[in-house]
Amino acid sequence: MKPLVWTALCFALVHTSVLAGPVNHTPPEEPEQTGKADDKYLKQKPTQSQSISDATPKAESDLVDGLILNRAMTRFGHRFYREFVSAYRDINGTSQHSGLTIKEFATARSGSKLSVMHNRKPIFVTFVSPASRNIDRQAAGAAKHVDALLKKHQQQSKWSAFTDPDLAPDEI
């Protein structure tokens, strides 16, 4: 009997509050001025059309610099990749390279062979065992070593332009 009484009492209270009328609320006299901006700020700059073709780039400047590709297969390889990229960014590694690839060759017996490749040539190779706990240190060391090699390679390529007296290709 008690639940029925409480239900009836709640029902009566709801009806009396609804029938009492709306709360006296007057809207503001003028609507708020929100979101108005001058037309000079809304003008868009003309955008240049970008080619999204899969064709080979015509100029070397069309290539994307600074990419580090992940070709790892195991979770240890992916962890090495994440730590390598993080360490490479932390030391402000050079981004003026034509791309690095971290490639993993997994073996069931001895772990994984991880190679950091530049222009399809290995520039750093390390082995990671599943029982190894120093993947983070290996990745940080690899990042420092790879950055030093890339900077040395860039410096050598700049100096090689001065050592070659022939500035133009052969015309034959």
What does this protein look like?
With 172 residues, the chain is α+β, with helices and mostly antiparallel strands. It has a domain at 62-160: Glutaredoxin (3-Layer(aba) Sandwich). The chain has four helices and four strands. It has helices spanning 2-19, 39-42, 75-90, 135-163, and strands spanning 68-71, 100-107, 111-118, 121-128. It has a four-stranded mixed sheet with strand order 1-2-3-4, with helices on one face. The longest helix is centred in the C-terminal third of the chain and has 29 residues, at 135-163. The radius of gyration is 33 Å and the shape is flat. The mean pLDDT is 77.
Helix-strand layout with pairing:
Elements: H1 2-19, H2 39-42, E1 68-71, H3 75-90, E2 100-107, E3 111-118, E4 121-128, H4 135-163
Parallel strand pairs: 1-2
Antiparallel strand pairs: 2-3, 3-4
Helix pairs in contact: 3-4
What labels would you give this structure?
172 residues; alpha+beta; Glutaredoxin; four-stranded mixed β-sheet; 4 strands; signal; Curli_CsgE; Curli production assembly/transport component CsgE
Kindly state the mean pLDDT as a whole number?
77
Q: Which value, in Å, is the CA radius of gyration? A: 33 Å
CATH class of the domain at 62-160: Alpha Beta
For the termini, the CA-CA separation is: 111 Å
How much β-strand is present in the residues? 15-25%
Reported by name, the CATH topology of the domain at 62-160 is: Glutaredoxin
List the total number of helices: 4
Shape label: flat
Helix-strand sequence: HHEHEEEH
Return the CATH architecture of the domain at 62-160. 3-Layer(aba) Sandwich
Question: Strand sequence of the main sheet, in spatial order?
Answer: 1-2-3-4
Outline the low-pLDDT stretches: none
Largest sheet: 4 strands, mixed
Return the structural class: alpha+beta
The helix content, as a percent range, equals 25-40%
Number of strands: 4
Organism: Shewanella maritima
Protein name: Curli production assembly/transport component CsgE
Region (Disordered): 21-58
Biased composition (Basic and acidic residues): 33-42
